[in-house]
Amino acid sequence: MALAPPRRAHYETAHSAGLVKQETGSSQQETARSFSFPMPPRPSADKSVAPQTAAQIATAIEDFVAQYGEAAILEDGKVLFDLRSAKYTLSTEHDRCTLHLWSEERNMVRRILSATPRNGSLRLSTQRFGQAQPKLLELVSSRERRTPTTREAARTRYLKTLERVLQREFPDWKPDAFRTAMDLERSFGPAYARGSLIRGNQAWAVIGVNEQETATTIDGILTLGILWLHHCREQAGGRRLYQGLKLILPRGTATLTLSRLAWLNEAAAQWRLYELDQNTEELTPRDAADQGNLRTRLVHHPDEKAASERFADAIEQVMQLVPAGEEQRVEQRLRSTAELAFLLHGMEFARARIGLAPNSFARTLEITAGVDETPLTSATCREIAARIAELFRRRRAFGSATDFARRGQRPSRRIGAASATAAHSRLQLRAERPAEEGNPAQDPLYRAAPERWLESVLRRDLAPLTRSLAPQPRVASLPRAEAFANDPDPDTRGNRADRPESVPPFAEAGNPHEPRVIPHLDPNHVYTQVPAIAGASDRGLLDLLGVTADGRLAVIELKADDDLQLALQGLDYWIRVRHHHLQTADATTGLGEFQRHGYFRGVELSPLPPRLYLVAPTLYIHPATETILRYLSPHVEWNLLALDERWRQEIRVIWRKQSGRS
Questions:
Q1: Do the domains 461-470+517-658 and 148-286 match in fold?
Q2: Max Cα-Cα span within the chain
Q3: In this predicted model, what pLDDT tens digit does every residue of 352-405 receive, in sequence order?
Q4: 8 A C-beta contact, residue 653 and residue 497
Q5: Which of 35, 180, 460, 618 is most solvent-facing, going by the fewest CB within 10 Å?
Q6: Where do the domains of the chain lie?
Q7: Residue 205 carries which DSSP code?
Q8: Cα separation, 110 vs 97, whole angstroms
Q9: Per-residue DSSP letter, 296
Q10: Residue 239 CB neighbour total at 10 angstroms
Q11: Domain 461-470+517-658, CATH 3.40.50 — does that match?
């Protein structure tokens, strides 16, 4: 029986910045297919509202999201998902409205019992699978719940308060040209108050944020502050000397910014941070050296060999569902010691769980597939296999006009050895609707979760990221007839970043008789989504953690979209990795903290700090990223790597920048 109203074939919508394009007066939505399976309906537990059909609930949710391009999901007043970046799917099979949400931070599946409009929002009565008690979620028009009038009024009041406080605290300096006006050309938004303190030809750049802004906005102040200081210096044109930057944060919110501040270049500028109590107008200076204990922990890395043996039966059953010849594309990621996920280019399609039988110690094995976690049985096996085949057909790296040289990959069934990262995303797929054959790149399943796909490609082959990042010594007294002096490194031919002039003179290369040490990343020791590196308010997972051939740890931050916070977000993880790396080695074993927790077994780690790699497609590196990187401390060794836009086919570094070089 058709539940959908006219012009709505289904409600499975992959919603993200890349999948939904908002236009004036209309919205264009691309549709993903439901990878869900029949489940018996449950009686509604919500008695407070009139019964709604699944189609009516889904219609209400989709209409709300289509109307408000900045919609967000709240629970108890806290933002769980910002739908500008998070993704969601809706399923109405068997008159059950199922909502699946996932983002960088979390993953959630709920049955929606009702959707009730209230004060410009949509109240969702939800039920978690396996629980009878309903719980309320709120779908709001914006994560910024204040109306524009209220928001602007708060910012205007803060601007006046800030000028008054600065005048009192720094009587010898004059506040000048403070404003909150938006300047998109220079990436300045209205949430930040910015201006200068002037005394003769001396000046300080000042930026502040009020306590009513979101935590993400407050934590992003240092990035905007660096850009503001840089802009002030450019505009001054030598007429004024800007000594540095003063940051004004709300009371109790400076922890993350303090940790970043300690790793900025003191030679480039002076950095001052203050906390402002807006009620008392008390301004308190904070010292970057006084950060207290870094809030981060390291969890033990699971034994993948033991897990492979434990999940051997599950692996065999899932592999039988995968199309013939496609086994090498399956990624196996341990969620815990009792759960193993199976993914395709970062997208989860099945999961195995080991449990205990009731009233006994006998082990049980359950394999589920799809967002509804349909159990794999003899009755569902054929349908699940058909839909997995459809997923594998559509989510693949299609060929491009450029014929890249492909390296052969041997299939690997070892847990953690396949080509991807952990991803909390199980996109839904409905098999009855054919994919767009005309342009496969427009398929929602092809475009979904690009950062997860990028991680999977890099896990398979990290070598392109670090080819020729160190000079190759050349022996002048032993020329080879078959090679020319200005030949690029043969390992990097075809990479436009390798120009002859990038090879330093022989004198700079060092003693040619010393062993050649190239900081290539070791493909045998790469860890994805390390859950230990926590502390930042917006994210708690490091994209990739590896080690180079000379034993240096490598923090690899990936982005597949235009993110202004790329540089400092990568710095956050670098700080935490460095913190764990510098912990005192065990007196008995001599192992550092990472190796005591099961990471980098058999590797002799260098005592030097980690290297930081920032990786993104070339068109998605924000223009301001290089400016921000120039203000980092010289103790932070960073590499900015721009990838060819066809990275799904093969990773190629188009250009790169390194710390200490122009």
A1: yes
A2: 88
A3: 998 887 777 788 899 998 766 788 989 999 999 998 999 999 998 875 434 343
A4: yes
A5: 618
A6: 20-140, 148-286, 304-396+411-450, 461-470+517-658
A7: E
A8: 9
A9: -
A10: 8
A11: no
Helices (H), 186-311: 215-219, 221-236, 255-261, 304-310
What phi, psi does 456 have (nearest 5°)? -65, -40
Please report which helix (H) or strand (E) contains residue 122, including its range.
strand 121-127
State the Cα–Cα distance between residues 33 and 13, nearest whole angstrom.
8
Residues 6+ apart with CB under 8 A from 460: 409, 418, 419, 420
CA distance 332 to 163: 56
pLDDT at residue 10, as a whole number: 35
Phi-psi region of 120 (alpha: psi -120 to 50; beta: other; left: phi over 0): left
Q: From CA 535, how far away is CA 515, in angstroms rounded?
A: 40
Q: Which two tokens stand for residue 361?
A: 């110690």
Cα 412 from chain centre: 26
Helices (H), 13-76: 54-67
Q: What is the mean pLDDT of residues 47-66?
A: 81
Per-residue pLDDT tens over the stretch 199-246: 999 999 999 999 988 888 999 999 999 999 999 999 998 889 999 999
> What distance in Å separates the CA atoms of residue 486 and residue 498, rounded to the nearest whole number?
11
What are the CA-CA distances from residue 446 to residues 210, 455, 650 (Å)?
Answer: 41, 15, 15
**CATH among 2.40.50, 3.40.1350, 3.30.70, 3.30.160 for 148-286:** 3.40.1350
Can you give the pTM of this predicted structure? 0.68
Could you report the per-residue pLDDT of 38-54, keeping only the tens digit for each?
333 444 444 444 588 99
Q: Where does the pLDDT of residue 412 fall: very low under 50, low under 70, confident under 90, or very high at 90 and above?
A: very low
Cα gap 645→617, rounded to integer Å: 6
Residue pLDDT, tens place only, 586-620: 777 778 888 888 888 888 888 999 999 999 999 98
Structure tokens at 296: 């981060």
Phi and psi at 627, nearest 5°, equal: -60, -45
Measure the N-to-C terminal CA separation of the chain; round to a whole number of Å. Answer: 65
